[in-house]
Amino acid sequence: MKYLFFSWLAVFVGSWIIYVQYSAYTELCRGSDCKNMICEKYKQGVIDGPACSSLCDETLYFGKCLSTKSINQVYVGKWAEVQGVIKCQMEEAAHFDFGTETELRKQTVPFEKPTKGTSVEKFKEMVYSLVKAKLGEHVNLPDLVNLVLSAADGNKDGHVSLAEAKSVWALLQLNEFLLMMILQDKEHTPKLIGFCGDLYVVEKVEYTALFGVSIPWFIEVFIPTGLRRSVDQWFTPSWPRKAKISIGLLEFVEDIFHGPFGNFLMCEISSKNLGYNDKHDLKMVDMRKIVPEVNFKKQMVAHPCVSDLDCVYEADCRTSCDQFKKQCTTEVIQPNLAKVCGLLKDYLLRGAPSDLREELEKQLYSCIALKSTVNQMEMEHSLILNNLKTLLWKQISHTKDS
C-alpha cells in the first residue's frame, strides 16, 4: 500500500510539473498571434516590407520556438530555401528606460508614424533626429540615415512608400535592429534577410549558445543549476575551436568600442546570447541588451539612488551612486572587455594546452580586473585585447581550425 501511495504521488507531482511547464511554454510561444497581428496590418495597407507577402501567404514558416519572454517572440524559420530566425514584438516595445527593472512603455497606436502626407525628405529628417538622439552627434550620421532609407525600400523600386516607412520606423525603436544596421558589414553580426512591420528575419546561426547542450524542458526541470553549469562546460568544441570562437568575440568587442557611431555597452553577457557557425566563426545571437553609451548616460544621470544597487541596468551595466547628489553616476564600472573575459575564463582554461595555461590565465585575470574609471583605460583596453588575441592566434594559426 505504501509503495502504491508513493507511486501515485510521483505520478501526480510529475504530471503537475509537466502541466506547469507546458502552460509556461504556451504563454511564451505566441508565434501565431504575432503573425496574425502583422498580417492584419499588412492586409490593411498600414505596413509593408520584403517579408510581408511570404509571411502572410505562409511561405515563411515558423519552426521551433526560442522565445524567453512573451513580448519578444523568437522562432527558427524557413523562407523558401533559406533558414533564418524570426523575431517579432508582441504589443509592447522595449525602450531604454530605468526602474528597478527594464520598463516597457506600451505603444498607444502601433505603426502610427510617419503619418499620411509625410514626404521622403521629412521622413529622412525624422530618422536623422531619432538616430542622433540614440547615438549622439557623429559626422557619419547622414550615411547611416541613407543606409536606413535603402533598407526601407524593401521591393527595391527606388521609392520608399508610407507603409515601408512605418515598418522601418517601428524597427528603429529596437536597439538590436539599429545595431544591425550599423554593423551590417561586420563578420560577427547576423545578416538581415527581411522584415514586415516590427517583425524581422535574420540569418540562422548553426549553434545558438557559446557552450552547453540542449536538453528537453521536461528533463531540464529536474537538473540542479550547479550541475547544469558543469554539464554545459563538458559540451564544448575542441580547444583550438574554442580559441577561434573567443577571438571572434574579442573582435566583436572591438567593433562596438568607440566606432564611427560611438561606444555600445553589452548589458547582458551570457553564453545564450552568443553562437557560432559550422566554421566556428562567432555570431551574435541576441543583441537586444547592447545599448548606445550616449543613451545610457543620459538615462543614468537622471536616475535617483540610495545605494549602488539602484544603479544597475539589466545584469551587467552598473554604475555607482553619488551619495552627495543621490544620483547615479554615468560611467559603467566594468567595460565590455572585462565582462567578456569573465565569461571566457572557464571556457578557455578548460582543456587549454599546458604550456599556454599559465600565461593565458594571467592575461584573462588582468582583463577581468580592467575598470572603466582607470586613467588611460582606452590604451590599456586595446593593449590587453590585442595581447589576448595574439596569444590565442599564435596557438592555433598553424592548425586547420584557424
Q: How is this structure best described in words?
A:
With 402 residues, this protein is an alpha+beta fold. 45% of the residues lie in helices and 14% in strands. A hairpin with a 2-residue loop joins strand 6 and strand 7. The chain is globular.
Observed structural traits:
single chain; 402 residues; alpha+beta; five-stranded antiparallel β-sheet; two-stranded antiparallel sheet; 14 helices; globular
Strand residues, percent: 5-15%
Q: Helices and strands, in N-to-C order?
A: HHHEEEEEHHHHEEHHHEEEEHEEEEHHH
Quote the average pLDDT.
84
The main β sheet shows up as: 5 strands, antiparallel
Globally, the shape reads: globular
State the end-to-end distance.
64 Å
The strand line-up of the biggest sheet is 1-2-3-7-6
Content-based structural category:
alpha+beta
Report the C-alpha radius of gyration, rounded.
23 Å
How many helices does DSSP assign?
Answer: 14
The number of strands is 15
Q: Low-confidence spans: pLDDT under 50, at least 5 residues?
A: 12-25, 92-108
Helix content: 40-55%
